[in-house]
Write a sequence for this structure.
C-alpha cells in the first residue's frame, strides 16, 4: 500500500508539470480555438532562457526568471503576430497545421543551440526530502507543485473576476459578438499568447528543475496536449485534474506493469490513455460537447 | 484540361485520365526516360530517385486519407514502420520471398490501419490528428518491446532476388521501386474517379451532408485508412529491402510530420501535388545538406554539424510560408499554369 501511495505522490508531482503545460494550451484554445502543438517549444525555450541567465551567466535565480519570462513571451507574441494572425478567417485546421510547422522550425533552433548536448540547471530550490507517514517527497518538487496550484487558482480568478478575463471569455464564445460589444479581439489574442507563454515558461523551468534541458524536452508539449484534450480543451480545471491524473496513472502503471512486460511502460501510458479517452469521451472529462449542424 | 478546340464527345473521353495524343506522347516519353534514368544518371541521383519514389508512395497514401477523405493522419511513419517490419520478419524468420512479402506487408499495415482509423468514427479534425500521433507512439513502442522485431537492434532483411539475380544495388532496386511507384500512382489517380473516390471527397467536404446523401461513413472512412496504410506498408517494405537495415530510429514522429508537410506544400487533394511536395522538400533537404558544411565553416557558432537542425528550420519555415501565402500548395500553381496553357493565345 505504501508503495502505491509513494508512486501516486511522485505521480502527482510530475502531473503538476503536465498540468501546467496543458493549461498553457487550454488558455490559447479557450479564446482563439487554436489547438497548439507549438507550446512544447515554448516550454523548452522557457527552460533554455532560464538556463542561459541562471546557469550560463550565473545571475541569481530570482533575477534570471525575469528575462526568461520576457523572452518566452516575446516568442509567443511573434508566433501570434507572424504566423497565426495571417490565418484568421481560414479553417481552424490550418492554424493547427501552422502550430506544427512552428514546432518543427523551433525544434531546429533548439537542436541547433544544444548541438546534441544537454544543459542541466544548478539546484535553485531547497534540496532534501519531506517525509510524511513513510512517504518521501522531494521538497523542490513540492514547491513547484504548489506554484502550479497557485497559478491555476490565480488564472481561474483572472478569468472570473477581471475585465480582461471577461473579454477573454467573450472572445472564446464568439469573435464577432465580442467585437460588437467593444472587446478588442486582437488585443485579447496578444494577451492570451503572452499569458500562455508565461505559463509554459513556468512549466519549462519547473520541468528543468527535475530533468536536463535536452532535445526531448519539447516533446513534453505532446503530453501537455494530451492533458488538455483529456481534460476537455476549454476547461482549466479539466487540464489541472487530467494533468495530475496522467502523472499518477503513468507512475502507478509503470510501477505495476513494468515487471510484467519488461520496462518502458511509462513512455506509452499517456498515449493509450488518450486513445481510450477519445474513444469513450471524445470531448474530454470536462469539455463542452459541441453539437454540429450541416 | 484540354487545349483550345478539343471537345469530349463521349463519357469515356470525359473521364479519361490521358486525353489527347500529346498527353500520350508526354506520358510515354516520360516513362521511357524514367526507366532509362540509371543508364545516364549518376549513382547519387539514382539513389536520390529511389528515396523520392518511396516518399511518393507514402505521401500518395496520405493524400488519399487526408487530401481526399479529409481525415488528417500523423501516423504515416508508424504504418511505414509496420510495413518495413512485416516484410523483414516474413523474409528473415519465415523465408517468404520478397515478391510475396511486399503485398502482404501492405495488407498487414492496412489491417492495422483500420484499427488505427477506428477513432475517426467518433472524432475528427485536430482530435483525430492527436489520436494518430498517439497511435504512432504506441506502434513504435511495441516495435521496440517485441522480441520478433529485434527491439533496439533492428532487423537486416535480404535484397530481393529472382532466379539467382540479386537486386543488390540501388540501380537494380530502382526498377522495382519505380515500377511499384508507377502502378501505385495510377491506382491512386484511378481511385479518385470511381464511386469510392467521390465518396471520399464527399466526406471531406461535409461528412454530415455526405451521410445524408447515402455515403456510409463507417465503411468509407475505414476504407480510406486501409488504403492509406496499404500505401505506407508498401513504401515501408520497399524501404526495408532497399536499405536492408530496419530500426525504429528510421520512423520517428518527425518523419510523419515531414510527410504531412510534403502534403501541405504539394497541395491537398491533388495527385501531381504529391510529386511536387516530395520533390520540393527532398531538394530543400539536399540543398541544406549541401550548403551546411560551408555555412558551418564560415559561421563557427553553428557548431560542427548543423545539417539536421538547419534542415528542420528550413522545412518548418517552408511549411509556414506555404500555409500563409499558398495554402493550396504547388498543385494550385500547376493548375494555373495549365489553365493559361489551355487558353493560349487568349487571356481568358
Amino acid at each position: 500500500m505504501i508503495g502505491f501511495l509513494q508512486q501516486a505522490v511522485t505521480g502527482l508531482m510530475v502531473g503538476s508539470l503536465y498540468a501546467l503545460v496543458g493549461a498553457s494550451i487550454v488558455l490559447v484554445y479557450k479564446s482563439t480555438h487554436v489547438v497548439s502543438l507549438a507550446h512544447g517549444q515554448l516550454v523548452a525555450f522557457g527552460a533554455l532562457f532560464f538556463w542561459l541567465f541562471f546557469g550560463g551567466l550565473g545571475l541569481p535565480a530570482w533575477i534570471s526568471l525575469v528575462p526568461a519570462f520576457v523572452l518566452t513571451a516575446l516568442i509567443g507574441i511573434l508566433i501570434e503576430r507572424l504566423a497565426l494572425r495571417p490565418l484568421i478567417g481560414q479553417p481552424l485546421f490550418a492554424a493547427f497545421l501552422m502550430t506544427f510547422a512552428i514546432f518543427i522550425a523551433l525544434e531546429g533552433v533548439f537542436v541547433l543551440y544544444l548541438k546534441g548536448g544537454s544543459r542541466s540547471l544548478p539546484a535553485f530550490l531547497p534540496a532534501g526530502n519531506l517525509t510524511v507517514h513513510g512517504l518521501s517527497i522531494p521538497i523542490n518538487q513540492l514547491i513547484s507543485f504548489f506554484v502550479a496550484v497557485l497559478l491555476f487558482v490565480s488564472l481561474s480568478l483572472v478569468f472570473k473576476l477581471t475585465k480582461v478575463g471577461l473579454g477573454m471569455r467573450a472572445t472564446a464564445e464568439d469573435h464577432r459578438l465580442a467585437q460588437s460589444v467593444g472587446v478588442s479581439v486582437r488585443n485579447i489574442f496578444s494577451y492570451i499568447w503572452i499569458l500562455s507563454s508565461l505559463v509554459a515558461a513556468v512549466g519549462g523551468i519547473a520541468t528543468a528543475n527535475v530533468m536536463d534541458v535536452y532535445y526531448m524536452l519539447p516533446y513534453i508539449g505532446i503530453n501537455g496536449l494530451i492533458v488538455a484534450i483529456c481534460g476537455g480543451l476549454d476547461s482549466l480545471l479539466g487540464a489541472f485534474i487530467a494533468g495530475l491524473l496522467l502523472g499518477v496513472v503513468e507512475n502507478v502503471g509503470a510501477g505495476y506493469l513494468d515487471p510484467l512486460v519488461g520496462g518502458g511502460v511509462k513512455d506509452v501510458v499517456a498515449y493509450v490513455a488518450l486513445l481510450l479517452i477519445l474513444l469513450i469521451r471524445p470531448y474530454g472529462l470536462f469539455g463542452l460537447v459541441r453539437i454540429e449542424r450541416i | 484540361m484540354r487545349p483550345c478546340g478539343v471537345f469530349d464527345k463521349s463519357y469515356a473521353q470525359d473521364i479519361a485520365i490521358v486525353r489527347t495524343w500529346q498527353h500520350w506522347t508526354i506520358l510515354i516519353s516520360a516513362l521511357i526516360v524514367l526507366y532509362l534514368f540509371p543508364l545516364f544518371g549518376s549513382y547519387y541521383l539514382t539513389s536520390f530517385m529511389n528515396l523520392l519514389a518511396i516518399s511518393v508512395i507514402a505521401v500518395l497514401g496520405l493524400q488519399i486519407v487526408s487530401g481526399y477523405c479529409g481525415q488528417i493522419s500523423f501516423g504515416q511513419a508508424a504504418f511505414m514502420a509496420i510495413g518495413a517490419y512485416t516484410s523483414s520478419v516474413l523474409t528473415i524468420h519465415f523465408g517468404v520471398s520478397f515478391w510475396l512479402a511486399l503485398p502482404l506487408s501492405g495488407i498487414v499495415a492496412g489491417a492495422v490501419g483500420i484499427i488505427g482509423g477506428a477513432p475517426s468514427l467518433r472524432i475528427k479534425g485536430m482530435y483525430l490528428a492527436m489520436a494518430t500521433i498517439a497511435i504512432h507512439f504506441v506502434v513504435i513502442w511495441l516495435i521496440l518491446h517485441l522480441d520478433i522485431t529485434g527491439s533496439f537492434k533492428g532487423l537486416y532483411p535480404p535484397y530481393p532476388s529472382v532466379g539467382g539475380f540479386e537486386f543488390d544495388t540501388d540501380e537494380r532496386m530502382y526498377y522495382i521501386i519505380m515500377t511499384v511507384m508507377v502502378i501505385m500512382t495510377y491506382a491512386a489517380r484511378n481511385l479518385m474517379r470511381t464511386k469510392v473516390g467521390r465518396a471520399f471527397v464527399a466526406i471531406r467536404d461535409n461528412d454530415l451532408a455526405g451521410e445524408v446523401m447515402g455515403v456510409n461513413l463507417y465503411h468509407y472512412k475505414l476504407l480510406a485508412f486501409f488504403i492509406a496504410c496499404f500505401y505506407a506498408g508498401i513504401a515501408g517494405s520497399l524501404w526495408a529491402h532497399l536499405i536492408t537495415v530496419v530500426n525504429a530510429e528510421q520512423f520517428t514522429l518527425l518523419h510523419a510530420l515531414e510527410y504531412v508537410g510534403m502534403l501541405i506544400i504539394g497541395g491537398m487533394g491533388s495527385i501531381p501535388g504529391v510529386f511536387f511536395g516530395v520533390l520540393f522538400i527532398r531538394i530543400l533537404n539536399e540543398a541544406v545538406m549541401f550548403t551546411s558544411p560551408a555555412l558551418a565553416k564560415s559561421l563557427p557558432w553553428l557548431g560542427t554539424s548543423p545539417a539536421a537542425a538547419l534542415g528542420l528550420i528550413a522545412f518548418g519555415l517552408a511549411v509556414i510560408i506555404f500555409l500563409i501565402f499558398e495554402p493550396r500548395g504547388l498543385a494550385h500553381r500547376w493548375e494555373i499554369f495549365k489553365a493559361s496553357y489551355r487558353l493560349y493565345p487568349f487571356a481568358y
